[in-house]
Amino acid sequence: MTILGIETSCDETAVSVVEGKGGLRRPKFKVLAHVVSSQTAIHAPWGGVVPMLAKREHGKNLIPVLEKTLNNSKLKTKSVKQQLKNKNEIEKILEREPELLEQFLKFIPTIKPPRIDAIAVTYGPGLEPALWAGINFARGLARAWQKPLIPVNHMEGHIYSVLVQSAKRKVQNIKIKFPVLALLISGGHTELILIRDWFEYELLGATRDDAVGEAFDKVARLLDLPYPGGPALSKLARNTQLKDSPWAPLPRPMINSPDFDFSFSGLKTAVLYRVNDLKKQNLFNDEARTALAADFEQAVIDVLLVKTIKAIEKYFPKALLIGGGVSANQPLRRQFTKHFAKHYPTINLLLPEQKLSLDNATMIAVAGYLRLIKGSTLKTRIPKKVEPLITARGNLTLD
Ligand code: KG4
Ligand code: ZN
Question: Where are the domains of the chain?
């Protein structure tokens, strides 16, 4: 089955085409096209993502990104101009996205409906105006091409992103054995989840305040780094030897707490105090910034690793899966890989390919395929309310 995935939950406009094969016992994926258009430069002057700006940019970018994806996947077939099916309905669906509607009406009638089986779109969680641009676009395409629409939870996309190794462009077969422990670390989420079977999620713990990615971004600002902060901070941290730091290490909040929860706002405040101190003493120079960045990054990794090990020791999962934007962090990948190879060699460590750590539509198409073959959850309507993947502690699924 060929799935077109669409992702617009934050500041990436992404469209992918993924071929899925096999049932839930052995799903296999081949990425036919993967296009991500980042709006980073647009939001950088504001120091963060501005939701209405993101929506406007998605409106501008969705058709060009779709066209590029179809070209790359070789699914696009030019044809003589044809009548658009359900034009009135599409005008209604896209009435709040005028720029997108205009491009849609110009482009879609010039191509034959591509040979895809379904359209998967992120319906949440994310920035609401940004999400709606993608959702309405997907609804419009589903109407025009008469294809089923699969709403996908963004975090479920991050989870199943580990099933793809797209760079090799081969059909991959990464077998998942349950139970799986998932560590989800992104700009909006920090969660430890026990997945006992496909789509059965049990929340073990979560952040009580800032998400890890959010903490990276905020601390990066304190260190005068440009948006997006996470990668910039990590790059700066590379230049230091922590041993050389003359300051006491930053705290590792909740590292020894008896639960699986996290807290990162105190760590951010500790950085703020340190920065203020250094500024007072006229010592806030490149060396100090670098040392602080490295210490912060290591504090985060220490807490994540210790809490993950604690969950491993309690639940003995067959695999540990790490997903979300912060899983792109190199020292984190390295340290988890090293630790698990040494102490838990039988636990399968599943990391997304680096480019699939960050927001993309391949993971949405993958999760869409899995939902589609599960069958029972195929809905052609977008749920009115964006339900989180897990709404409370306990066994709650998306259905
Ligand atoms: O999953 P994602 O792309 O978007 C959300 O769903 O939130 O995650 C974005 C977050 C941002 O906070 C960004 O700073 C962080 O992931 N991030 C990183 C790195 N790359 C992205 N944090 C630390 N190190 C990185 N290399
Ligand atoms: Zn994400």
Answer: 2-161+357-374, 176-351
Q: How distant is the alpha carbon of residue 37 from its chain centre?
A: 14
Write down the pLDDT at residue 183. 98
Structure tokens at 231: 């990668």
Superfamily holding 2-161+357-374: ATPase, nucleotide binding domain (3.30.420.40)
- Amino acid of residue 117: D
- Looking up tokens 């005028």 gives 98
Predicted TM-score (pTM) above 0.85: yes
Mean pLDDT, the chain, whole residue set: 90
Is it true that 2-161+357-374 and 176-351 share their CATH fold? yes
Question: How many Å lie between the centroid of ligand 1 and the Cα of residue 51?
Answer: 17
Summarised one tens digit per residue, pLDDT across range 123-163 is 999 999 999 999 999 999 999 999 999 999 999 999 999 99
223, burial (CB in 10 Å: exposed 0-12, middle 13-18, buried 19+): buried
CATH topology for 176-351? Answer: Nucleotidyltransferase; domain 5 (3.30.420)
Task: Pick from 216, 234, 329 the residue to mutate for probing ligand 1's pocket: most ligand atoms within 8 Å of its CB.
Answer: 216
